């Protein structure tokens, strides 16, 4: 095993140069703490400008906190949140949303390709309305989804109309929001507030920061007292500028979008190479920066032995993630190793 390379996750990547540069700049002198600094003001204003609306913006350390605290602000402990059965809030947050809300339950819906359907939401809302059932109060959508697909603006608006009908707030887990914007080639407002999203958790971590997620309330009423919720949960950074300055680095000249476009393009290159490979099939349509493929087990073993790292999950398929730091040469090396295996090892 001569080298170690990865398609394991976009959070294996480092800090992108523009974010690193902004962090170095913020390190030049002392600044007020707890978000009272100029960087935090600039980053929040930059996000308001990006979304073209007067939203409320908060910064927290990670995605689990962003989702959990945002969802907790959307209802009471006796309410419930409807999400897809594959949603990160259900499968990978260790009960964080339920904990932050003092017990609000997640209700699991379904839909092809990791996407909740309006029908599934309506079914969960209407199947019980009695006092013994946790009252649905929010819908959580992941954009892009856990399986690398995206909700179109039309799909989002259809979900919003069901949400309106049943008085549900709409939360968006945007761990890969940037990749969704890049894939759909829309203005960020088109798949958020213009499509009825109340709160977006916009990830900087997977886009090229060390850490830091923006919790963006388009529905400003829901943001009431949110800063206290963050503080109580241990999510108010005292040296906030080290989260917000890198965000300024991402926002300037739309670096966030370039990073996402690059990651998506690498995944597309990977997808095209895999599609030509015998014995390999794709599990989901590739729309953003991840490819979900069924690779023969001996091929997986061969690749891992060559030093490639990637995860298997969601029904056992291999998930190959690209990030801002993935190179096209790296994709070529991976595909060359697969070609090598096909030539020498296939029976
Ligand atoms: C990575 C990710 C998160 C955030 O995870 P943290 O490890 O808590 O930062 C949230 N949602 C999805 C879909 C993710 O992939």
From TrEMBL:
User: What's the subunit arrangement here?
Assistant: Homotetramer.
Q: Tell me a Gene Ontology molecular-function term this record carries.
A: threonine aldolase activity
| Family annotation (Pfam families) | Beta_elim_lyase
Q: Describe its function.
A: Catalyzes the cleavage of L-allo-threonine and L-threonine to glycine and acetaldehyde.
EC number(s): the record gives: 4.1.2.48
Q: Which domain of life is it from?
A: Bacteria
Fetch the InterPro entries from UniProt.
Answer: ArAA_b-elim_lyase/Thr_aldolase, Low_specificity_L-TA_bact, PyrdxlP-dep_Trfase, PyrdxlP-dep_Trfase_major, PyrdxlP-dep_Trfase_small
Limits of the Aromatic amino acid beta-eliminating lyase/threonine aldolase domain: 6-294
Which reaction is this enzyme known to catalyze?
L-threonine = acetaldehyde + glycine; L-allo-threonine = acetaldehyde + glycine
Which key words are in the record? Lyase, Pyridoxal phosphate
According to UniProt, the name of this protein is L-threonine aldolase
The organism named in the record is Marinobacter oulmenensis
């Amino acid at each position: 095993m001569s080298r170690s390379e990865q398609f394991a996750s976009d959070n294996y990547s480092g800090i992108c140069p523009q974010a690193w540069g902004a962090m170095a700049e913020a390190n030049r002198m002392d600044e007020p703490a707890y978000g009272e600094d100029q960087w935090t003001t600039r980053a929040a204003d930059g996000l308001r400008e990006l979304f073209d609306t007067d939203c409320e913006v908060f910064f927290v350390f990670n995605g689990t906190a962003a989702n959990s605290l945002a969802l907790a602000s959307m209802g009471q402990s006796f309410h419930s949140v409807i999400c897809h059965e594959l949603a990160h809030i259900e499968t990978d947050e260790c009960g964080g949303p339920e904990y932050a809300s003092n017990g609000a339950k997640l209700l699991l819906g379904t839909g092809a390709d990791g996407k909740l359907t309006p029908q599934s939401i309506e079914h969960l809302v209407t199947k019980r309305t009695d006092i013994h059932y946790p009252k649905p109060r929010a819908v959580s959508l992941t954009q892009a989804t856990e399986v690398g697909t995206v909700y179109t603006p039309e799909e989002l608006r259809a979900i919003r109309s069901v949400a309106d009908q049943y008085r549900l707030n709409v939360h968006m887990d945007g761990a890969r929001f940037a990749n969704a914007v890049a894939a759909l080639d829309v203005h960020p407002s088109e798949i958020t507030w213009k499509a009825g999203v109340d709160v977006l958790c916009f990830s900087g971590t997977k886009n090229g920061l060390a850490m830091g997620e923006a919790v963006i309330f388009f529905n400003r009423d829901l943001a009431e007292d949110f800063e206290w919720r963050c503080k109580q949960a241990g999510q108010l950074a005292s040296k906030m500028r080290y989260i917000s300055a890198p965000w300024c680095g991402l926002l300037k000249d739309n670096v966030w979008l370039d990073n996402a476009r690059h990651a998506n393009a690498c995944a597309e290159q990977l997808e095209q190479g895999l599609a030509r490979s015998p014995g390999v099939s794709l599990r989901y349509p590739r729309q953003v920066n991840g490819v979900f493929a069924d690779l023969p087990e001996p091929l997986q073993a061969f690749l891992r032995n060559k030093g490639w790292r990637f995860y298997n999950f969601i029904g056992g398929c291999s998930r190959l993630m690209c990030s801002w730091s993935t190179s096209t040469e790296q994709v070529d090396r991976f595909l060359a190793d697969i070609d090598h295996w096909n030539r020498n090892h296939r029976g």
